[in-house]
Specification:
The chain is of the alpha+beta class. Helices cover 23% and strands 34% of the residues. It has two domains: 58 residues, 2,3-Dihydroxybiphenyl 1,2-Dioxygenase, domain 1 (Roll); 97 residues, Signal recognition particle alu RNA binding heterodimer, srp9/1 (2-Layer Sandwich).
Length: 173
């Protein structure tokens, strides 16, 4: 089972559109416009992520009470570091991940690349200042991995995981 969509508020739908359709390649396929029960009105934009079953959506709010100081960075809004609350999209394979990394760099975005030992990820920031990731699973899951995960659920002093195999900060050309 997957999820249907993730919905987030935004301040600048034009920048969101340029990033999610222009850079990430997701297609804007639907918008719903209507009143918000608490007051004001909103546009709700849906971007298809490869099929008709998974979307990311953004709210553009107009006159909605309490949104004048809207914080769009979901980690900052929660008071935690940026890497805690982030959006991770699936990359098909390492070639797909490399193509996405190149596309981000060509778009002028800074990229963080990490080999986590069991998955490989690239990260950048979207126009909402949210950390966005593409990730490809490069390892497998063993019975030992599951047992360690179960044991860690209640461990008061868990054993730290090995550090990433590599971390690279990349700047656009």
């Amino acid at each position: 089972m997957g999820y249907h969509h993730l919905a987030l508020a935004c301040r600048d739908i034009q920048a969101i559109h340029a990033f999610y359709e222009g850079v990430l390649g997701f297609e804007l396929v639907k918008v719903e416009v209507g009143p918000v029960p608490e007051g004001g009105w909103a546009k709700h934009f849906f971007y298809r992520m490869g099929d008709n079953h998974t979307f990311i959506a953004f709210w553009e709010l107009h006159g909605v009470p309490g949104t004048d100081a809207l914080e769009t960075n979901i980690s900052k809004a929660a008071g935690v570091p940026d890497q805690i609350n982030h959006i991770a999209f699936d990359a098909a394979d390492m070639d797909d991940l490399q193509q996405r990394k190149n596309r981000w760099l060509e778009a002028g975005l800074e990229v963080l690349e990490i080999d986590h030992n069991w998955c490989h990820s690239i990260y950048t920031k979207d126009p909402n200042d949210i950390l966005v990731e593409f990730c490809v699973t490069t390892g497998s899951f063993t019975a030992q991995d599951r047992q360690r995960a179960l044991d860690t659920l209640t461990a008061q002093e868990p054993v730290f995981s090995p550090p990433p195999a590599s971390i690279e900060f990349l700047s656009p050309p």
